[in-house]
Amino acid sequence: MRVLLLSGALSLLFTLVLTPVFVRGFQRLGWGQFIRQDGPQTHFVKRGTPTMGGIIILLGIVFGYFVAHLIAGDVPSYSSVLVIAIMLGLGAVGFLDDFSKIRQQQSLGLSPRAKVVGQIIVATAFSALAISFPDQNGETPASLAVSFIRDIDWLTFAAFGTIGSYIAFAIWTSLIVVSTSNAVNLTDGLDGLAAGSSILVFGAYVLISFWQFNQSCFSASLDSEVAYKCYEVRDPLDLAAVATAILASLIGFLWWNTSPAKVFMGDTGSLALGGGVAAMAIFTRTELLLPLIAGLFLILTASVVLQRTYFKLTKGRRIFYSSPLHHHYEIKGWAEVTIVVRFWLIAGFLAFAGAGIFYLEWLGR
């Protein structure tokens, strides 16, 4: 519990206090945002705002999590280190994309194919490590079964044999990671929208993982009367700690990222955050609950898919003025702050509805 509180406090202080220092450094390096010409005209004033703020978020997470463990004298868990590792890996892909935009002096960085290939490489390495190195209870961070609120016993990749199961799991993991990281990336279009929405999503995962710790099958203090409801999840308390570090780092960053933003997270931050969300879903065995918990990201991604599909089928007609959906409301004349706050409300409702369903499943068993 002490590690959980310390990691949150240290991550919050890091990003809250040091973000202005990094912003000045980014300005000296010329790391300014470029705005696409076909986007809302209100965005043109944001041109040149320092970007790649995801670096600050990631450093805040690493600092808060590891220093908290050092102070408490605890050993970082394998599961949480993997969560941070996939965030750093996807953050590196995002950094290459952001840096390419700056170097080429345009709003297009890596090609979509190159970005997806990078995400798949990171996701594949993550999947291999996630089902390796079992602990003393025989648990690996992830399992070969597809999960909703717990593993679905009859829906497991183990049926494909040893090699086949690893390949199938790698494909499944890549699908979750690539989809989620790109969804958060699409959400990052207004000041504070992606950061604030991600705070709410990780807040739900703090609650879920902490409850799994409280009802862990491997806890010596588990009440025998409810032992049949327990969760076979590895390192649940430390997963809550790393989720708290991510959440707190985002809160400190959001102080400077709200409208008018002093810094943008860029693809460095949005791809990393998506990877963190995906990893938490896989490790807490809530993979099929992820579309609800991260529902706002799904809605905004669906708006892009619908827009492009309809545009191609009708040869130029549109459903929305622009996509993702938040740009549609911008063009309609909604104030940016109004859109962001209302979308935060939607994100919070969906995230905690997902956490509520998770808890109701425990009550109903």
From TrEMBL:
One MF annotation (Gene Ontology) recorded for this entry: phospho-N-acetylmuramoyl-pentapeptide-transferase activity
Keyword Metal-binding: yes
Subcellular location: Cell membrane; Membrane
Keyword Ligase: no
Positions of Mg(2+) binding: 185, 267
Catalysed reactions listed for this entry: UDP-N-acetyl-alpha-D-muramoyl-L-alanyl-gamma-D-glutamyl-meso-2,6-diaminopimeloyl-D-alanyl-D-alanine + di-trans,octa-cis-undecaprenyl phosphate = di-trans,octa-cis-undecaprenyl diphospho-N-acetyl-alpha-D-muramoyl-L-alanyl-D-glutamyl-meso-2,6-diaminopimeloyl-D-alanyl-D-alanine + UMP
Annotated InterPro entries: Glycosyl_transferase_4, PNAcMuramoyl-5peptid_Trfase, PNAcMuramoyl-5peptid_Trfase_CS
Keywords: Cell cycle, Cell division, Cell membrane, Cell shape, Cell wall biogenesis/degradation, Magnesium, Membrane, Metal-binding, Peptidoglycan synthesis, Transferase, Transmembrane, Transmembrane helix
Parts of the chain that traverse the membrane: 6-26, 52-72, 78-96, 116-134, 154-178, 190-213, 239-256, 263-283, 289-311, 339-360
Coiled-coil regions listed in the entry: none
Membrane topology: Multi-pass membrane protein
PROSITE patterns: MRAY_1, MRAY_2
Pathway: Cell wall biogenesis; peptidoglycan biosynthesis
Enzyme Commission identifier(s): 2.7.8.13
Gene Ontology terms: cellular component: plasma membrane
Entry's Gene Ontology BP terms: cell division; cell wall organization; peptidoglycan biosynthetic process; regulation of cell shape
Cofactors demanded by this protein: Mg(2+)
Function of the protein: Catalyzes the initial step of the lipid cycle reactions in the biosynthesis of the cell wall peptidoglycan: transfers peptidoglycan precursor phospho-MurNAc-pentapeptide from UDP-MurNAc-pentapeptide onto the lipid carrier undecaprenyl phosphate, yielding undecaprenyl-pyrophosphoryl-MurNAc-pentapeptide, known as lipid I.
Entry's family note: Belongs to the glycosyltransferase 4 family. MraY subfamily.
Descriptive protein name: Phospho-N-acetylmuramoyl-pentapeptide-transferase
Protein's organism: Pontimonas salivibrio
